[in-house]
Amino acid sequence: MWSFLNPLFLYAAIAAVIPLVLHLMQRRRTVRIRFSTVRFLRLAQKRSSSRIRMENFLLWLLRTLLMLALALAFAIPVIRTQGFGHLMGSARRDVAVVLDVSYSMGYESGRRKVWDTARDAAVALIEGLNDGDRVCVFLADERNTPLIEQPTGDRAMVINLVKKLPLSHGTSHLHEALMAALKSLDESKHREREVHLITDGQSLPWRGFEAQGSGDAAIPVAVSNAPVASTNTPSAGDSESAAPPAGIWDPRKVDKDIVFFALLAGPPQPENTYPVDVELIPPLLLANAPGQLNVRMNHSGPAQSLAATLEVDGKEVSRRTAVVDADGALNLTFALSPLPAGVVAGRIYTPADGLSLDDEFHFLLRVRRELPTLVVGSQEDCIFLATALNPGDDSSTLNVKRIDPDTLPGVNLRDYSTLFLVNVLPLPGQTMLALENYVKGGGVLVIFPGDGARAGDYDEWTCLPGKPKVIAELPENNRVRYLFLKARQDPIFEGFSLPPGSTPTLAIQRYLKFDSLQGDQPVVIGAGNDIPFLTSRYFGRGRVLLFSVSADRRWSTLPLSAFFLPLVHQVVLFGAGIGREPLYVWPARSLVLSDLFPDLTEKDTLLTPAGEPLTIRPIRKEMQVLLEAENVYDPGVYTIARNADLQEPFFSVNLQRAESNLKMIDPKDLPKLTGLPLRTARDGVELQRLIDDHRRGKPLSEMMLWLALILSICELFLANWVARKKSGLSEHMNVESSGRVVGGVKE
Amino acid sequence: MSEGIASFLNPQELQRLGRLVLQSRYVVEGNLAGRHRSPHKGASSEFADHRAYMPGDDLKRLDWKVLGRTDRYYVRRYEDETNLRVYLVIDRSGSMGYGSGSQTKYEYACRLAAAVGYVVLKSRDSVGLYVYSDKIDMMMGARNSFSHLNSLLKYLQGMRPGKTTLTAPALHQIADDVNRRALIVLFSDLFDNPPDIVKALAHFRKLHHDVILFHVLDPMELDLKFKKGGEFEDMETGEIVIADPRSIIDEYRKVFAEFLEQYRKPCAEMRIDYRMVNTSLTLEDFVRAYLEERKRFSR
Question: In this prediction, does ipTM exceed 0.85?
Answer without folding.
Answer: no
